Amino acid sequence: MADIPVGPRTASELPGYRPVLSGPQLEVLHRYGAEQRVAMGDVLVRDGDETYDLIVLLEGEAQIVEHYAQPDEFVIVTYGPREFMGEIGLLTGQRAYLTVVVSAAGRVLRIPVQQVHTIMDQELELSELILRAFLVRHSRLTRLGSGLTLVGSRFDVNTRRLLEVLSRNRLSSKWLDLEGDREAEAFLCQRSCGGPAHRRGPGWRAAPQPQQSCPTRRARARHAACR
């Protein structure tokens, strides 16, 4: 196998967040996947995909993007050669909530999720490396507020119930409290007042809302929305 250059590192990264695969580790992974040429702009994983592959970069670069192709698009991280992409949701069956886009043409190794489970069962060294990276990334994404967004009142039993579900299933999420977060009020005003449409991702769910010009304080206590 030809030597593969290592991408740039940043000192601020958490230990285990972006492990660089060795030559022997790449050789093992090649037994479980297939190489693919990719061009700049190719979408490898899209927000909403029910399942997705473990992607190992061999050449080129790829970005993890939130709100892809939306006005509030945000690049979370850029990966380089010898790095792999994914987080714990790949193993638990959670649908993708971020998009992977090629930012520099090259080659990738795609490993189907079924084969990833085989790796986790049979390749001890790699399974520990992958699991550690997935857990650290999940923690970081949770702190960033990536993933689902829950909008609801702290006094609403449905809000508390949804927060418990998100916590119990360890889903990356962000909560906007209607009682103290201006962003939450603006969000609901947009929906009720016919303002700019807000992006609705595949995971969007919203509770019925009263017909009114804009949510009042009394009405806000009954609102709960989740995307």
Characterize the structure shown.
The structure is a single chain. This protein folds into 2 domains: 122 residues, Sandwich (Jelly Rolls); 79 residues, no CATH class. The chain has 227 residues and is of the alpha+beta class. It contains 7 helices and 10 strands. The radius of gyration is 20 Å and the shape is globular. Strands 1, 2, 3, 4, 5 and 6 form a 6-stranded antiparallel sheet that branches.
Terminal Cα span: 44 Å
Q: How much strand?
A: 25-35%
> From the coordinates shown, what is the CATH architecture of the largest domain?
Sandwich
Instruction: Assign an overall shape.
Output: globular
- The number of helical elements comes to 7
Short description:
31% of the residues lie in helices and 25% in strands.
Which secondary structure elements does this structure contain, and how are they paired or packed?
Elements: H1 23-30, E1 34-38, E2 43-45, E3 54-66, E4 74-79, E5 84-85, H2 89-92, E6 99-111, H3 113-122, H4 124-144, E7 148-152, H5 157-168, E8 173-177, H6 182-193, E9 205-206, H7 217-220, E10 224-226
Parallel strand pairs: 7-8
Antiparallel strand pairs: 1-6, 2-6, 3-4, 3-5, 3-6, 7-10, 9-10
Provide tags for this entry.
7 helices; 227 residues
